[in-house]
Amino acid sequence: MAEKEGKEKWGMVIDLDICTGCQACVTACSMENNIPFVGEDEMAYGRGMQWMRIRRYWEGEYPEVAPAHEPMLCQQCGNAPCEPVCPVFASVHSEQEQINLQVYNRCIGTRYCANNCPFSARTFNWFDYELPAPMNSYLNPDVSVRRRGIMEKCTFCVQRIVKGRQNASASGREIADGEVVPACAQACPTDAIVFGNLSDPESRVSQIARSDRAFRELEELGTDSRVTYLKGGKNYGS
Amino acid sequence: MKSKVPIWQRGSFRITVAIILLILAGGAVGGVYFTQIPPEQPIQFPHNFHVGLGAQCEYCHTGTATGPSAGLPTTDKCWGCHQQLTPRNADMELVVHYAEKGLSIPWVPVAIQPDFVQFNHQPHILAGVSCSTCHGDLTTMTVAEPQKGQNMGWCLDCHQKMSTPEEFVRLSDCATCHY
Q1: B24 & B100 share domain
Q2: The whole model's pTM is what?
Q3: Residues B21, B93 within the same domain
Q4: Hey, are the CB atoms on A161 and B122 less than 8 Å from each other?
Q5: Residue B41 lies in a domain
Q6: Nearest CA of chain B to the CA of A91: how many Å?
Q7: Within this chain, do residues B24 and B52 fall inside the same structural domain, yes or no?
Q8: Which residue of chain B has the CA closest to A103?
Q9: For labeling, which of A74, B106, B111, B131 is most exposed (least CB within 10 Å)?
C-alpha cells in the first residue's frame, strides 16, 4: 500500500475573546463521546463527567467585578505528567497522532493520572451509568462506552482523526486542512475553537497560534501543551 | 475421638477438592467452547454452495470497500435471485417465507469484535487483504464459523508483516483500533 506518512501534530486554538461561554462545546463533546450525564448529586460530590468544561472565575474586587471563563479540556501535552505514572501503561503517548491516549481496556482505575494532571482534565467513571430508554439511541458507535472504574479524558476526537485519515487514504491523498474537526469545534457557534495540524506552518491553526495574543495554560510547567489560548487586553466587554 | 490425620490428608477432603477443581475446570472449558462454536442461525446458509456458484463476497456483504462494517444481506438481496428459483428444501422455503411477509432475516453476526475494538473493513480491503485471511476458507463452510486465535497479537503480527517500519508506527498505534 503506497501511502505517504504524514506526521501530524494535532493542535487546537481557543480564542477567549470571542468565546461566549455558551457550553455548546461541552454538550457536543458529551454527545460525540458517549459521556454519561451523572446528575446533580454526583456532580456535587465532584464526580462529574465532562471531558470539556467551562472554567468560570471572577476578576477584580467587588463592585468592580467581572466574570471570565475559559474552556478547559485535555491539553494533549507533548510532555505529559499523566503518562509516566500509569502502572499499566493505559495512559500512553501516541507516536502517530502526537496526542495522549487513554487505553480503556488496559486501565485498572488507579486514578494516579488524574491526580497528576495539572489541568484536572481527566474524569473517572465512578459508576456504570444507565442511559434511559430513548437516549441510548444517541450513543456514538465509533466510540467505546466506558464502564465503571475507567479513567477517561478528551481524545481530540481521535475517532474523527482516524476516520479522516482513512477517508483521505482511501482516495489517495493527504488529510486536508480543516477536514478533521472535533465535535467541540464543529459545535462552536462563534468559531472560537480551531483545530488542525500544528506541524504544517500553513494550516489555519498554526497561523492563528502565532498570534500576539497567544498563551498556553501553565506554560511554566513545561508540559508542551497542544492547546493555545488567545486573549487580548481588557479593552472589550466589561 | 479426634482423628490424628491432618485435614489435608483425609480422603474425603481430597475428593471434595478434586470435585471442586473439576467443576471449575469444566466450567472454564465449557465457557471457552461456547465462544468457539458457530451461533444458531435462522437459515443454515450454505456459503460453500454460493461461493461455488461464483458469487463474490462483496455481492452480499456490500460494505467492505466503503465502510467499517461489511454488513449482512437484506431479504431483498436474497430475493433478487431466489424469486427465480423453486424452493428445493426447507431453508429455501424460509427465504420465500421471509420475502413474502416482508420480514428481515434475523442473521446472527459471527465475526464480531469486542466493544473496545474499532475495526474498519475499508483500509484492509483497499490494502488488498483477502476475505479468507481473517474469515477462513468459506468454500469449506456452510454457516460462517468463528476463527480461532484472532487476538490483538494476531492483528499486530499481520500489521507488522504487511507494512514498512515507518507504516508500523501508525499500524501499531493504540488509537488505530482503541478509542
Answers
A1: no
A2: 0.84
A3: no
A4: no
A5: no
A6: 10
A7: no
A8: B178
A9: B106
A105/B169 touch (CB, cutoff 8 Å), yes or no:
no
Each residue of B50-80: b (16+ CB within 10 Å) or e? bbeeeeebeebbbebeeebbbbbbebebbbe
Q: How many domains does chain B have?
A: 2
Residue type, position B43, single letter: I
Indicate whether B164 belongs to any domain.
yes
Q: Write the pLDDT tens digit of every residue in A84-115.
A: 999 999 999 998 888 999 999 999 999 999 99
Residues B79 and B143 both lie in one domain: yes
Enumerate the residues of chain A whose CB falls inside 8 A of the CB of residue B161.
none
Centroid of chain to Cα A233? 26
- pLDDT tens digits along B56-66: 999 999 988 88
Express each pLDDT in A124-147 by its tens digit: 999 998 888 888 888 998 999 999
Q: Give the residue extent of every domain in chain A.
A: 10-230
User: Does residue A63 have a cis peptide bond before it, meaning omega lies within 30 degrees of 0?
Assistant: yes
> What does the pLDDT look like over B106-149, one tens digit per residue?
999 888 888 889 999 999 998 899 999 999 888 888 888 888 88
Q: Where are the alpha helices (DSSP H) in chain A?
A: 24-32, 40-44, 112-116, 158-170, 183-187, 204-209
Interface ipTM:
0.79
Confidence of residue B166 (pLDDT cuts 50, 70, 90): confident
Domain residues for B30?
Answer: 7-35
CB spacing of B123 vs A166 below 8 angstroms: yes
* Residue A102, H or E segment: strand A100-102
Cα B49 from chain centroid (whole Å): 19
- Distance, in Å, from the CA atom of A147 to the CA atom of A124, rounded to the nearest integer, reads 10
Residues B69-73 have a mean pLDDT of: 89
B40 in any annotated domain: no
Same structural domain, B61 and B129: yes
Residues of B in contact with A145 (CB under 8 A): 115
Q: List residues of A whose CB lies inside 8 A of any B CB.
A: 1, 3, 5, 92, 94-97, 99, 101, 103-105, 142-145, 155, 158-159, 161-162, 166, 169-170
Query: Would you call A162 and B179 a contact, using CB atoms and an 8 Å cutoff?
Result: yes
My answer on whether B117 and B148 are in the same domain is: yes
A103, A106, A156: which to substitute to probe chain B, counting the most B Cβ within 10 Å? A103
To the nearest whole angstrom, how far is the Cα of A156 from the nearest Cα of chain B? Answer: 11
Provide the 3-class DSSP secondary structure of residue A11.
Answer: strand
* Position B119 in a domain: yes
Same domain, B22 and B110: no
CATH of A10-230, one of 3.10.450.350, 3.30.70.20, 3.30.420.360, 3.10.129.10: 3.30.70.20
pLDDT value of residue A233: 65
Q: What is the pLDDT of residue A3?
A: 39
